[in-house]
């Protein structure tokens, strides 16, 4: 009888236990969606932008407003990257949990050391972010700090998921550290390489790899390449020794191909963030793929096959 009562008590206890709710996440960019998925594989994630879009400029669509309204946590880059659209989404969604200063709004840039910060910014400088370069998701040394803070935030919001999140974070970090050592070794072969870019989207990774940026197709950050700026670039002395023009999939490739035609440089087009393609579906895969593309170009140049 005691045993039976105990069983009934256990059944009651188990059925009274709240079913672990599925976390609803709003991710501004695909890289944060991918990292949330690493930590909480069963989260329901809405991602506002894709690798085919420029994350600086998207529309505050009604479906995105609805997703912010329903979310437990929004994970965005910050440092003004989404200044043109996120404030509108937050205001229209009026989700009390997801507002500036609340735990429901996580900005990756708050947990990273940003490069190129400016004390003074005015319009003459182009689209410069005073906080620094926000494109920090390709910074091999900063991403682990961001993911650690993200894991803590997720655990705070869903305490019942905390042990799982912590375990997955530790596994993720070990994998990232292993790959970072591999990337560091591969960077040696890239020593002395230089590229032309379009915007500062790859700056953190290029700097980490020791690949020099000798020119930018944008006349000023965020301003589209102009004919006059492109012809000025032809006079940049280092152009002759450059290895490639590196652009992102969402960018108009015409300026890069124009410069390639004038100079004979190769154009490398890579996604600026994670994609649906298995090879680049994670940040680790994306960074490895970008390094491979640069390696191929540098090796090609060394053998004179370009
Ligand atoms: Zn930018």
Automatic annotation (TrEMBL):
<dbReference type="GO" id="GO:0030001">
    <property type="term" value="P:metal ion transport"/>
</dbReference>
<keyword id="KW-0732">Signal</keyword>
<dbReference type="InterPro" id="IPR050492">
    <property type="entry name" value="Bact_metal-bind_prot9"/>
</dbReference>
<dbReference type="Pfam" id="PF01297">
    <property type="entry name" value="ZnuA"/>
</dbReference>
<feature type="signal peptide">
    <location>
        <begin position="1"/>
        <end position="21"/>
    </location>
</feature>
<protein>
    <submittedName>
        <fullName>Zinc ABC transporter substrate-binding protein</fullName>
    </submittedName>
</protein>
<dbReference type="InterPro" id="IPR006127">
    <property type="entry name" value="ZnuA-like"/>
</dbReference>
<dbReference type="GO" id="GO:0046872">
    <property type="term" value="F:metal ion binding"/>
</dbReference>
């Amino acid at each position: 009888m005691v045993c039976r009562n105990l069983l009934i008590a256990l059944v009651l206890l188990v059925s009274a236990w709240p079913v672990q709710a599925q976390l609803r996440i709003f991710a501004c960019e695909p890289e944060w969606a991918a990292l949330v998925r690493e930590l909480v594989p069963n989260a329901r994630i809405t991602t506002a932008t894709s690798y085919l879009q420029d994350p600086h400029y998207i529309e505050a669509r009604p479906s995105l407003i609805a997703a912010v309204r329903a979310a437990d946590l929004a994970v965005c880059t910050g440092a003004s990257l989404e200044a043109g659209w996120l404030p509108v989404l937050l205001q229209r969604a009026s989700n009390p949990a997801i507002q500036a200063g609340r735990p429901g709004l996580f900005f990756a840039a708050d947990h990273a050391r940003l490069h190129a910060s400016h004390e003074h910014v005015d319009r003459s400088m182009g689209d410069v972010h005073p906080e620094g370069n926000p494109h920090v998701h390709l910074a091999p040394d900063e991403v682990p700090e961001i993911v650690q803070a993200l894991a803590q935030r997720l655990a705070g919001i869903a305490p019942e998921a905390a042990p799982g999140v912590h375990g997955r974070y530790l596994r993720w970090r070990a994998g990232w550290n292993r790959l970072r050592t591999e990337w560091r070794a591969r960077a040696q072969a890239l020593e002395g390489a230089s590229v032309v870019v379009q915007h500062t989207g790859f700056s953190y990774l290029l700097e980490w790899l020791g690949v020099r940026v000798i020119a930018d197709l944008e006349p000023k950050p965020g301003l589209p390449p102009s004919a006059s700026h492109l012809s000025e670039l032809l006079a940049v002395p280092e152009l002759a020794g450059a290895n490639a023009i590196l652009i992102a999939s969402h960018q108009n490739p015409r300026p890069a191909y124009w410069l390639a035609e004038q100079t004979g440089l190769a154009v490398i087009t890579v996604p600026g963030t994670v994609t649906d393609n298995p090879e680049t579906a994670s940040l680790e895969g994306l960074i490895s793929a970008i390094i491979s593309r640069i390696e191929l170009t540098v090796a090609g140049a060394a053998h004179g096959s370009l």
